[in-house]
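**Sequence, structure tokens**
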Amino acid sequence: MDDKNGIGSAVGDQMKIAVIGAGAAGVFAAIAAANSSRSAEIEILEASHKPLAKVLISGGGRCNLTNHCFDPAELVKNYPRGSRELLSAFSRFQPRDTMEWFERRGVRLKVEEEGRVFPSTDNSETIVDCLLDEANKYGIKIRTGARVKGIRLIKGGANSNGFNIALENGANNRHDRVLLATGGSSLGHKIAEAMNHTIIPCVPSLFTLKINDERIKGLAGVSFGNAQLSLVEKAKRKIAQSGGLLITHWGLTGPAVLKLSAWGARVLHDSDYNAEIEINFLPNRTSDELYRMLIEYKARNSRKRISSAEVLLIPNRYWSRITQVMGIENELTWAEITAKMMRGIISELTHGQFRISGKATYKEEFVTCGGVDLKEVDFRTMESKICPGLYFAGEILDIDGITGGFNLQNAWTTGWIAGTSMVK
């Protein structure tokens, strides 16, 4: 096998490979296959008229292409589904390899907060152009507007299948290998299901929460550096995530919300996005520590009004709103505050209950959990265990990650493994 960046040698007679889907996984897999076998004839069939459309909007149009986390054991902790399977896959192709791959092709990269990796141009077209140039260099055909109607298996022996791909325009083509890299679209799932694969029902992941509550009404823009959000199921199994939190005009967003929506994707879906969360705005302090801090503040600021305090690192606007909601009069001073009031404030800030009334898409990005059952895929090659010659890569699988470049890294890794394996 060639190295991750070099040019491989021809493998056997000319092999015909079809990649269905011109997203990150599909294009990267096609390039990896061509890199491993210069004799293979590779074409990408894309239903839309725009290849790599999702890459273009990734990271707000800047393309957060991976994460600067080079330890596979730590890396997989960012995947609510698929972490076990990806552990071995990342030992073969991980973020370090992704960064080297693009840098060797002239793309300068930079690392930002939380390890997010972007092109130094801050423009996703830099990544798209690199991939399309590389595909063109290898003579890979990208056929847009080529919507697949169905795939028919052509039996060729115990381990040698062929595939007849029918397009909606009436065209039919025979291929030796087929890679399904159609993302979260129903098309790929229908094809996989027709090839006897199990599809785990898809539900949204990575979304913001709609919350209609007087405590946050009119406070859009107020943010918290670190908060813990907890979602409690009926079975009382707590799902909790921490991170930054931002109040919006529709509810809540920020890293903590997005992570909670990913790990709690199925629970929230099953509740029809009508559930309750508990928020601890001060997760690094115990209730007793917070009480002592308020006692000390009271001793130093007895003449100041409670409603306008700058205490406990809580944004002033939110503190003022909480005291108002709790019925503390605006003119009341710290000299007049009672122990019960202080305990009440602490309880509200550490165990506040909020009712979710729906969800909202995170920016223009849309991620689902669900897809092809991972038990039916060999992660050493990304080949189907049910149908030899059929491969999978990217979001079509029941794999999803949180924000920070992890979903694209899944695409690069599974695409690279599939591409290098298809031509063997």
User: Anything to note?
Assistant: The chain is about 30% helix and 25% strand. The chain has two domains: 16-203+365-422, 207-361. The chain has a mean pLDDT of 93. Residues 316 and 382 are 52 Å apart (CA to CA).
